[in-house]
Amino acid sequence: MAHDTRVKICGLTETADIPAAIVAGASYVGFVFFPKSPRHLDLEAAQFMATSVPEGIVKVALTVDADNAMLDELTQHVPLDMLQLHGKESPARVSEVKSRYGLPVMKAIGIESETDLTQIDFYAKVADQLLIDAKPPKDAERPGGNAVAFDWSLIAGRRWPLPWMLAGGLTPENVGEAVRATGARQVDVSSGVESAPGVKDAQKMVDFVTAARA
Ligand SMILES: O=C(O)c1ccccc1NCC(=O)[C@H](O)[C@H](O)COP(=O)(O)O
Predict the structure, then answer these.
(1) Interval 184-192 mean pLDDT
(2) Pocket test for ligand 1, best of 17, 41, 86, 186 (most atoms within 8 A of CB)
(3) How far, rounded to the nearest angstrom, does the alpha carbon of residue 106 sit from its chain's CA centroid?
(4) Which pLDDT tens digit goes with each residue over 106-162?
(5) Alpha helix positions (H), 60-201
(6) β-pairing, 164-166 with 82-85?
(7) Please, which residues have CB within 8 angstroms of residue 180's CB and are 6 or more apart in sequence?
(8) Where would a tag sit more exposed on the chain, N or C end, judged by fewer CB atoms within 10 A?
(9) Is 32 close to ligand 1, i.e. is its CB under 6 Å away?
């Protein structure tokens, strides 16, 4: 039986990635603003790409511990539907960003062991969505987008009172099992639909969405 799993494809870098992600069936597209990432976009490129996203597809900007000056500039230049906070932002900072910009906020939470789950309850009170991702490896250059999965059994059967996405090391090959193991209704992918870091692959995007919904 097919499911209506919603897919976010994160880290689009080329204008042609937008129609490819939409044809594949993505419900969300993500733009990364983190200079050390191979997926980093400058504001001009992001504005151009975001403007070509049709109504109904959620445009998400991913930032890492961004200050107000950076978020002011981002939100003034790029038409956005959601902010994804992927750093060490506190619950209070999540609330502040939400009220300052009037956009829904998705907070990313890195999971490696059972103890990492406790913070979820604090963020669940203030965020609009959660991104339950793998904790980055110790030597990682970035806090996400590392093609690393966490132990899905840690969240099997868990439910939270807000929408959430599963992320971390998902691929067309493992996303079906990940959805079954966790009960996720939404999934997020970046590396798993690339042919090289920062280069999205149209066929992998189709394969991923198809497998997520199978
Ligand atoms: O993708 C990046 O380069 C990135 C940089 C800095 C912070 C977060 C980043 N990506 C986060 C994402 O939303 C990814 O989609 C998520 O972590 C899953 O990534 P992957 O394991 O590569 O699918």
Answers:
(1) 98
(2) 86
(3) 8
(4) 999 999 999 999 999 999 999 999 999 999 999 999 999 999 999 999 999 899 999
(5) 68-77, 91-101, 118-124, 175-182
(6) unpaired
(7) none
(8) N
(9) yes
Q: Give me the half-sphere count of Cα atoms (radius 13 Å) on the Cβ side of residue 27.
A: 12
Pocket mutation for ligand 1, best pick of 187, 190, 209 (most atoms within 8 Å of C-beta)? 190
Q: 11 CB less than 6 Å from ligand 1?
A: yes
User: What's the Cα-to-Cα distance from 96 to each of 79, 81, 119, 160, rounded to whole Å?
Assistant: 20, 17, 18, 22
Contacting residues for 147 by C-beta, under 8 A, at least 6 apart: 169, 191, 192
DSSP sequence for 125-151 = TT-SEEEEEEPPPTT-SSSS-S-----
Taking the centre of ligand 1 as the mean of its atom positions, its distance from the CA of residue 211, in whole angstroms, is 20
Structural domains in the chain, CATH included, are 6-213 (3.20.20.70)
Q: Pairing relation of β-strands 6-10 and 28-33?
A: parallel
Here the tokens at position 128 are 């609009």
C-alpha distance across the termini of the chain, in Å: 7
> With contact defined as beta carbons under 8 Å apart, do 193 and 208 qualify?
yes
Name the pTM for this structure.
0.96
How many whole angstroms separate alpha carbon 98 and alpha carbon 27?
21
